[in-house]
Amino acid sequence: MTSSPTSSGNTSSGNTRGRIFSGVQPTGNLHLGNYLGAIRNWVALQDSFESIYCVVDLHAITVAQDPAQLRQSTREVAASLIAAGISPERAIIFNQSQVPQHSQLAWIFSCVARLGWLNRMTQFKEKAGKNRENARVGLYSYPILMAADILAYRATHVPVGEDQKQHLELTRDIAQSFNQAYDVEFFPLPEPQILGSATRVMSLRDGASKMSKSDMSDNSRINLTDDRDQIAQKIRKAKTDPDALPSEEAGLEGRPEAQNLVGIYAALAGSSVGAVLAEFGGMGFGDFKPALADLSVEVLSPIGDNMRSLLENVDHIDHILEGGAARAEAIAAPIIDEVNEIVGFLGRKS
Ligand code: TRP
Fold first, then answer.
1. Does the CB atom of residue 106 touch ligand 1 within 6 A?
2. What are the structural domains of the chain?
3. Cβ 146 under 6 angstroms from ligand 1
4. CA dist list (Å): 228 to 82, 222, 233, 266
5. Which of 36, 68, 74, 248 could be joined to 199 by an S-S link, Cβ 3.0–4.6 Å?
6. Which residue's CA is the nearest one to ligand 1's atom 10?
7. Is 130 a catalytic residue?
8. Is residue 213 annotated as a catalytic residue, yes or no?
């Protein structure tokens, strides 16, 4: 089985390197960890791949949502992607519920995937908790919808965090199983591009836990909406240890806070931990933190500024998302028409 998509649905750009699809949940409060872990990579990838980025509002309702808040978060996340440098012209950016092919394909894939495959999903077990009888069916079949997201475009590459790797494997199983069941070579087996291991951003208050939107302390994270003063102050207040910075990476072992701050500096500077330590080794945090604060403000505050001005004009964001959805549907619709044909549905004669 090859992973090269065939002609249909791959005509909108002459790009032969492949097609990227990735999704982000519409949760408020995107922060530095999201930026360095995912968004920044998405920005970089849009130049080498045909890139489709989706705000996954259908996935969001697998847990309870306040409708007004969901709408707001969808716009906010879209705005932050654009503010961070994803071009709505070069890439496609849209929200999932506007393109009906995702749901259509998810149903068909529900009839391909097996209970046993879903039963292995560790994220469901974590999210459902003890009271599994009460878990939503959508939470259980979440990975099927994710497979549909990717394969509705016959995407070949999927940049995701480590935590989504198992879902990607399931996507490949579904693609392969569909191809086998219908004796076709229709879906590619998409390749995960695992992101974020290099820049795993930890809490500024505790170097042992991940930077998270749900941390009680706002000082634990730098939100993309923080202004200059907030950014600088959070860096100044970040937890450290009393020692000077080492000159080599090995010296960071057992010093999670130091490791985190140096890692953040390296990532923001587009440099390496080794190079940062070569520059700052021997200095104390009293010298390093101001440098990190300046760099953080320099890189992040324009994103926050852009985001705020985008969010002032909701109609404009909605317009961008609608345009993205139209372009996304133009790719997905012929693919789903073909799927319907393969499966044996009569389909629409247009
Ligand atoms: N499940 C992903 C997450 O929580 C989001 C997502 C939904 C996604 N559909 C996708 C990621 C398709 C990659 C491709 O991060």
1. no
2. 19-200+313-343 (3.40.50.620), 218-309 (1.10.240.10)
3. yes
4. 20, 11, 8, 20
5. 36
6. 23
7. no
8. yes
